[in-house]
Design brief:
This protein is an all-alpha fold and 148 residues long. 49% of the residues lie in helices and 3% in strands. Strands 1-2 form a two-stranded antiparallel ribbon. Strand 1 and strand 2 form a beta hairpin. The longest helix has 30 residues.
Length: 148
């Protein structure tokens, strides 16, 4: 509720309240303000509980878009980079067509940095598809007239 109010502003308000109300009425005013805030919170939680009781599971469906908006509000470049680099909860199929859950073993890296696979014949990459057929001697390759 008071996320945008810093300690400096709170101190200024306390000093202003001390000058305006005086030292004898300030504790009573602070107690009244605390009671009023507590009562507003109770009203809000009661209204939420009443809506949850009346709507049942539909209430959770209404909260999902609000939670998504809240996560977008807290979105900044630092969290985007952190999620992209360190979260492994990404989609099963990546944008380039590579499926990280295709059952084939992941390649291991050797000391010189080249990738080696645990199997003798590597599986073709899903984005490249099957290997093209080889042409016979003096055979012309097919030409796509729409691509030229």
């Amino acid at each position: 509720m008071f996320d945008s109010v810093g300690w400096g502003e709170i101190i200024v308000l306390i000093v202003a309240g001390l000058f305006i109300l005086g030292p004898e009425r300030l504790p009573a005013a602070a107690a009244w303000m605390g009671g009023a805030i507590r009562q507003v919170k109770d009203y809000a939680s009661g209204a939420r509980d009443q809506l949850k009781g009346e709507l049942g599971p539909e209430f959770d469906e209404l909260r999902k878009p609000l939670e998504e908006l809240r996560s977008l509000r807290n979105f900044n470049p630092k969290t985007a980079a952190t999620r992209a680099l360190f979260d492994d909860d990404g989609p099963a199929v990546k944008p380039n067509g590579y499926s990280s859950q295709n059952g084939s073993p992941k390649p291991n890296m050797t000391k010189n940095g080249s990738a080696t696979s645990a199997t003798s014949t590597p599986a073709p990459h899903p984005a490249t598809g099957p290997a093209p057929e080889t042409l016979a001697k003096n055979e012309r390759p097919p030409i796509d007239p729409d691509a030229t």
